[in-house]
């Protein structure tokens, strides 16, 4: 047998079996790592996913070669244990493929959740920033209103105090005038008698006018009653 024929010779059953077990061991480690990292952080594990997918494809190729080995004539007779072992590797490949899909789905869900939480946190920060800015504007506006009210109150109080001072001054002036008039009257002889007579005459005239008006009213009423 030449060197080219040896290189092209298909692998033996033992070689395929060992390679299948080696790949299964590596795939199991990869799946365990992906499951832990994906569930805990949800980070981007694209590299790990690609490597695991390549290992699954290699295992699929090895299992295909094992099936081909059993189908072609060989000096080693096909035994029940070999068929059972091939079926076992197929079951393991199926389970690993199913687990890999589940892990990828969990990683995607964790990544989506992390992205959603990040977006929510960004929106909360944006809302808080806008809210704080609005609150600052509101408080500034309210402070300006309060200061304006204080200024208006001060103006009203100043006007009230000025009006009060004017009233007090006018009161003092009137008291001084009354006092001076009283002093003048007290120094003029007979002025009090004259004022008293004037007041008496006014009262008498008022009584006379009241009597005349009453008499006229009675006469008018009697006239209306007899007509």
Please provide the count of β strands. 0
Largest sheet: none
Order of helix and strand elements from N to C terminus: HHHHH
Q: What portion of residues belong to β-strands?
A: under 5%
Tally of helical segments: 5
Helix/strand/pairing class, anyone?
Answer: mainly alpha
* Cα-atom radius of gyration: 60 Å
Quote the CATH topology of the domain at 11-133. Answer: Methane Monooxygenase Hydroxylase, Chain G, domain 1
What form results from the Cα inertia axes? rod-shaped
- For the record, give the distance between the C-alpha atoms at the N and C termini, rounded to a whole number: 169 Å
Function: Involved in transport from the ER to the Golgi apparatus as well as in intra-Golgi transport. It belongs to a super-family of proteins called t-SNAREs or soluble NSF (N-ethylmaleimide-sensitive factor) attachment protein receptor.
Subunit structure: Component of several multiprotein Golgi SNARE complexes.
Family: Belongs to the GOSR1 family.
Membrane topology: Single-pass type IV membrane protein
């Amino acid at each position: 047998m030449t060197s080219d024929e040896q290189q092209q010779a298909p692998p033996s059953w033992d070689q395929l079996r060992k390679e299948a077990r080696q790949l299964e061991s590596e795939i199991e480690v990869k799946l365990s790592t992906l499951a832990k990292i994906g569930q805990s952080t949800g980070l981007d594990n694209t590299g790990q996913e690609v490597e695991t997918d390549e290992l699954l494809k290699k295992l699929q190729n090895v299992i295909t070669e094992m099936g081909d080995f059993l189908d072609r004539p060989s000096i080693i007779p096909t035994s029940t244990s070999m068929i059972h072992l091939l079926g076992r590797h197929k079951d393991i490949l199926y389970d690993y493929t199913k687990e890999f899909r589940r892990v990828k789905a969990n990683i995607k869900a964790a990544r989506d959740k992390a992205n959603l939480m990040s977006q929510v946190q960004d929106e909360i920060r944006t809302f808080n920033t806008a809210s704080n800015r609005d609150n600052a504007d509101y408080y500034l506006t309210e402070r300006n209103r309060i200061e304006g009210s204080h200024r208006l109150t001060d103006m009203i109080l100043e006007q009230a105090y000025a009006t009060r001072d004017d009233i007090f001054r006018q009161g003092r002036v009137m008291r001084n005038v009354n006092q001076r008039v009283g002093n003048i009257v007290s120094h003029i002889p007979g002025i009090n008698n004259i004022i008293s007579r004037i007041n008496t005459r006014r009262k008498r005239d008022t009584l006379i006018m009241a009597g005349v008006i009453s008499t006229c009213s009675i006469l008018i009423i009697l006239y209306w009653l007899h007509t």
